Write the structure tokens for this entry.
Amino acid sequence: MPQLITILILVFSAWWLYRRFVSDARKLAEKSRQAEKERQTGAIGTLVKDPATGEYRLKREGE
């Protein structure tokens, strides 16, 4: 029985690490695509509209 619990914990941990790796890889790929698009257009940053004030500001990292 302890071997089964250990194996289940290892399998779950491996699955969780794989999902986290895939998630991080997708975020990195999206960031790279955005940087490439900015490089092609010559933009310094991306503007986003603040819904509360209606003003535009530079998009922060992680948004």
Observations:
- The radius of gyration is 20 Å.
- The beta strands are 47-49, 56-58.
